[in-house]
Amino acid sequence: MSFKSLSDMLNKSNDSGTDLFETILSDDMSDRDVTRESSLKEMRYMWDSMKKSYENHDDELKSASGLVGGDAAKLKKYNEGESICGSFIVDVMTAAISVAESNACMKCIVAAPTAGSCGVMPGVLIPYKKRFNEDDENIIKAMYIAAGIGAVIAQRASISGAQGGCQAEIGSASAMAAAAVAYLKGGSSEQVLNASALALKNMLGLICDPVAGLVEVPCVKRNAAGAVNAVMAADMSLAGIKSVIPPDEVIDAMGETGSLMAVSLRETSKAGLATTETGCRIAKCRKHF
């Protein structure tokens, strides 16, 4: 990715008069020296893999630790009634947790941008496709939008929980998903990037505190939170609500926040939920697993 900022990406798109998707696609072709067909084929494979990670979810399967599994099934059953959030948002939560559970159960997923945040993008895009009968080709275009934003975040800040806390994983994924769904709903390029800023702002300061060092608790349920946050941010942006802090500055703030976090709050399992009484008991039991 040659873009060092989202503003550079936006300016290139505006100056050339091309869609933001085309701008990012062209950059990928140039950066990796691949053809348009090759780039699109790879992205299509990722989208197909995301769908499979959801479709192949097993409601009965538990992770090796026994900590994860079965929660997506509970949401599916709950959604048969009258939920507080409404069926679409529960579908988003269900899809996000399904894919995150599949990851914990060692099934194939797409790291978007990481394995720990793998449920956020499909958690948003799969229910969106179902509700709005969206064409796969348009979703693939939206995934380029997400990829471009993720690449800039990785360069300017981090997508690693060990480096930047969970804000760098779930937060980045939420920003990517928000931009993707805002694009699908017909938002302008400015609204698309603004949606990513609104989503990432809501995740600032989120620590990475995996219980027993596993990408299970609280990781799986945070995927649902990141997915719902993405939908909310997209709707706000499409309604005309703007982030007072520009997208690039939000990314920089996330990077700074991550660097200021104590090491104990960055995937070391030495603070937060990992060191609660229950967290310590689980970790102790795992040693004998």
Word description of this protein:
- By secondary structure, the protein is mainly alpha-helical.
- The chain has a single domain, classed as Orthogonal Bundle (2-methylcitrate dehydratase PrpD).
- 62% of the residues lie in helices and 0% in strands.
- Helix 5 crosses helix 6.
- The radius of gyration is 18 Å and the shape is globular.
- It starts with 5 loop residues before the first helix and ends with a helix.
- 48% of the residues are buried.
Q: Fraction of residues in helices?
A: 55-70%
Tally of separate domains: 1
**Oligomeric state of the chains in view:** single chain
Strand content: under 5%
What's the overall average pLDDT, rounded? 97
Task: Give the C-alpha Rg.
Answer: 18 Å
Low-confidence stretches: none
Largest sheet: none
The ordered string of helix (H) and strand (E) elements is HHHHHHHHHHHHH
In the CATH hierarchy, what is the architecture at level 2? Orthogonal Bundle
What is the number of helical segments per DSSP (H or I, 4+ residues)?
Answer: 13
Question: What is CATH's topology name?
Answer: 2-methylcitrate dehydratase PrpD
Task: Note the gap between the termini.
Answer: 43 Å
Overall strand count:
0
Silhouette:
globular
Write a concise keyword list for the protein shown above.
289 residues, mainly alpha, 2-methylcitrate dehydratase PrpD, globular
Give a quick precis of the structure.
This protein is mostly helical and 289 residues long. It has 13 helices and no strands.
